[in-house]
Amino acid sequence: MQKWIMSGLFFAACVVAIVLMVTLPGKEDVAQEEKPSMPEVKLDAAAAEATVKAQGCLSCHGDQLQGSVGPNLQKIGSQLSAEEIYTIITKGKGGMPSFKDKLKSEEIANVAQWLAAKK
What we know:
It is built from six helices and no strands. With 119 residues, the protein is mainly alpha-helical.
């Protein structure tokens, strides 16, 4: 009797493992979710600056991007690429909130390019 119970449990565990292998996302899918792809946009510095002001970024990063509560962004382009900046703005990082639900992807990409040009 005990052999039948153990065999049944083993069979059930195998079925659950197969179902999970089929339904769970793979490493590639998870990596894609972790790093959003930045759309190609033409840099519009005036629009990027207006977006930064309108979204309240200056309250944490300072009116000259010199840093305050948030880090200094005056020369962020020498440390991070536009794609890295895009990912941070989209997903958030540390105390910085995500802006993926507040801004369009193209607006985030424009701000990321604008910041990446600051070297």
